[in-house]
Structure formats: structure tokens, C-alpha cells
Amino acid sequence: MDGIVLENINKQFGSVIAVADVDLELSDGRFVCFLGPSGCGKTTLLRLIAGLEAPTRGRILLAGEDITRTPAHRRNFGMVFQSLALFPHLTVGENVSYSLKVRKIDRDTRRRRTESLLELVQLSGLVDRHISQLSGGQKQRVAIARALAIEPRLFLLDEPLSALDAKLREDMQLELRMLQQRLGITTILVTHDQREAMTMADLVVVMGPGNRIHQVGSPLEIYRHPANTFVADFIGTSNLLEGTCDKSGEIRVDRVHLEVAELPAEILPDSAVTVSVRPEDIRVLPGIESGNNRLPGKVSFIRDLGSSVEVYLDCAGIQIISHSTPKGRPEIKPGDDATAVLPPAACVALKS
Ligand code: ATP
Fold first, then answer.
1. CA angle, 65 as apex, 60 and 68 as ends, to 5°?
2. Same domain, 61 and 193
3. How far away, in angstroms, is 172 Cα from ligand 1 center?
4. Ligand 1, residues 35, 43, 193: which to mutate, most atoms within 8 A of Cβ?
5. Quick check: CB of 18 below 6 Å from ligand 1?
6. Section 60-76 average pLDDT
7. Residue 218: pLDDT band by 50, 70, 90 thresholds?
8. Which residue in 114, 140, 150, 290 has the fewest CB atoms around it within 10 Å?
9. Ligand 1 atom 19 nearest Cα
């Protein structure tokens, strides 16, 4: 394996389990996001890879070599933290070239590399500026250039964009993604923002309850085929319908028979099941219709967002959200009878 491999990684701080049973293989050149809610172990896992923490158990391999005990400064990884940790008393150029100076790289090479890095992050001309004279986005770029100065083997980013306002954040996401593609450097970004992960990553590692990995896959795989109810709920919006699977494998939600895309082997006959359906896959028809994959109810609320329309239905106590385009807007208003149609291909059956 050419990239980085984590084998049975566990990290405990006293009695707190920060990371549990992580097995992960990341091949070279990919943009990977560690995604999950606060406290699920994303930062700890990144710090273990960086060498800033040592695992309680397990091994870390880089291109087949065991680096579990290699100190951080000998791993040659570039890191950007949420706090950025720039040197406030140094100029932009001095910040970027700092690690080259520590490595005793000669002055000319330092100058050339600093110039090309500042060009790369679109800060040419600001080499003599002081950090205090920069905007938030410019500071971000300095931190990225500084981390890239050592030509790192891995580029590790811990929520570096979370302090930026929404617009700048989106611009920086795009910039960072394009930069990574240009350099082809393996990058791992920690984020709790699922939109950020979905727009930037080749591969998303979803962490969650139990401080373990719940799913690894491309953004689309994770969205379309969530591995469990936690992932279905955490990534995007999902209707999670509680139902039952009977002896013959038929799924029912509130007495309505639901045909699903497939029935995973882990769902046993005579057990509880959760069916996940994305709002954009649900069609709402005016009036009451019965039949398989049809949940009759009443319109409780309609939200018109301009580019999309959200319809909220109350189907005998089950809340359903449907999203449609303005063109596909059903002819209904709050209080009307309506039926939610759930296409079998969009119904993902999950163990409850
Ligand atoms: P956030 O998004 O809030 O930063 P996270 O997913 O990155 O969260 P971690 O910071 O990795 O989560 O923390 C995982 C767990 O380990 C948490 O319960 C945290 O309190 C605990 N933890 C992390 N670092 C330490 C430490 N140095 N000492 C004790 N407990 C720690």
C-alpha cells in the first residue's frame, strides 16, 4: 500500500476513549475528510497521524513503513490548525520560510520557494506585510503556504476554515480543493460541517457515536447508501421511518407496505427496521391515495425557498419532508389531504 494505513488504532485519555478500533487505508493523492459531530475523535485521529499523540494501541504505516513511534518533526507532514498559530511578530514571508530556516535551507532557495508559495496562495506582493495587517482569509492562506513550505508528504488540516464567514469559507474551500488537485498532495481535513466534506472530499470518513468510524466512502456513496441510521441522519436531511420487518421480509411502516431497494442481511425477520428516504426523492400528490409505498396524510407546512419548495406532511403522526423544484410544486396548501409517494429505489432499509 503506497499511502497511509491505520491498523486497529485506539486512543484513550485516562478512562475517556477518544478513538476506538480504527482501521483505515488512504491511498496517495486523495482529499480525505474526517467528518463527524463534536467529540467523536476526529482531531485526536488527525493528531495521531501527525505524531502529536501516540496511540494506546495499533500501528500507523506510511508507504509500508511503520511510523507509529516516529516523532512528529521527522514525519515531514504539514499541518494547519483552527487557530492557525501564525507568528504574529514575523512578516508573511518570514512565517512562510520559517520551517525552511529551521532546516538550514540556504537564503536564496528560501526566498525562491517563499515567492512561489505566496504566488500559489495568491498573496504575491504581501511578503513584507505583518500578520496583524492581514484579513482572515489572507491569514488562512499564509498558514497554508507555511505548511506547504516543507513539501510535506501529507497535508493535515484541522477545521482551518471554521472561523471564516460563510462566503469566504466557500471561496477558500474551492481554492483549497483546486490547490490540492494541482499539487496532488494527500490531504486530510477535519470538519464537522457535512456540506464542507461533501463538496471537498474524494473520500469521506464518517466518525460518530462510540468514537469509531461508521462509514468510509465517496460523498455520493455516503449520501445515497448510508451504512446506518446515524450516517443517514448526520449527512444531509433524511426521513427516517420506524417500521417492522415481518417473517417473510416484508417491511411495514404504519401498516403501509414499503418496497425497498434491498433488504440487508443484518435485518432479521421479525425485527424493527428504519427506512431512510431523502426528501428530494419523495413526491407529494394531492388527495388521499392508498397502496404500497404511499403514506396518506395532511399538509402541515409549505416553505418556498425560491430555488426549491419544502412540503411538510403529517402522515398519522409520522412527519415527512419532501423537497421539490418550483416547477414540480404540488397543487396543495396547508390543511389539504395529500399523499407521500416513496419510490422503492429511494427507500434504504437500515437496522434500527
Ligand atoms: P471537536 O469537533 O469538538 O473538536 P473531535 O471530534 O475532534 O471534536 P476530539 O477532540 O478528538 O473530538 O476528542 C475526542 C474525545 O477525547 C472527547 O471526549 C475529548 O474530550 C477527549 N479528549 C481529547 N483530547 C483529550 C486530552 N488531551 N485529554 C483528555 N481527553 C481528551
1. 30
2. yes
3. 26
4. 43
5. yes
6. 94
7. very high
8. 290
9. 39
Among protein residues, the one with the nearest Cα to ligand 1's atom 1 is: 38
**Ligand 1 atom closest to Cα of 47?**
11
Of 165, 191, 224, the domain-final residue:
224
Asked if residue 284 and residue 213 are part of one domain, the reply reads no
Among 11, 40, 56, 196, residue to substitute to test ligand 1 (most atoms within 8 Å of Cβ): 40
Q: Is the pLDDT of residue 87 over 90?
A: no
Beta-strand ranges (E) seen in the chain are: 4-13, 16-26, 31-35, 57-62, 65-66, 77-80, 154-158, 187-191, 203-208, 212-217, 239-245, 251-253, 256-258, 271-277, 283-286, 294-304, 309-315, 318-324, 337-341, 348-351
CA–CA dist 269, 251 (Å, integer) = 10
Q: How many CB atoms are closer than 10 A to CB 227? A: 19
Mean pLDDT, the chain, rounded, equals 92
Lowest average pLDDT, out of 162-171, 187-196, 316-325, goes to 162-171
Q: How far apart are CA 308 and CA 327, in angstroms?
A: 9
Look-up: residue for cell 403514506? Answer: 295
Q: Which residue lies with its CA nearest to atom 25 of ligand 1?
A: 13
State which of 224, 249, 274 marks the end of a domain.
Answer: 224
Query: How many domains is the chain partitioned into structurally?
Result: 2
| 309 and 183 together in one domain | no
Residue 29: per-residue pLDDT? 94
Beta bridge partners of 239: 277
Residue 40 in contact with ligand 1 by CB distance below 6 A? yes
Decide: 212 in ligand 1 pocket, CB within 6 A. Answer: no
pTM of the model: 0.89
Nearest CA to ligand 1 atom 24: 44
For atom 16 of ligand 1, the residue with the nearest CA is 18
113 Cβ closer than 6 Å to some ligand 1 atom: no
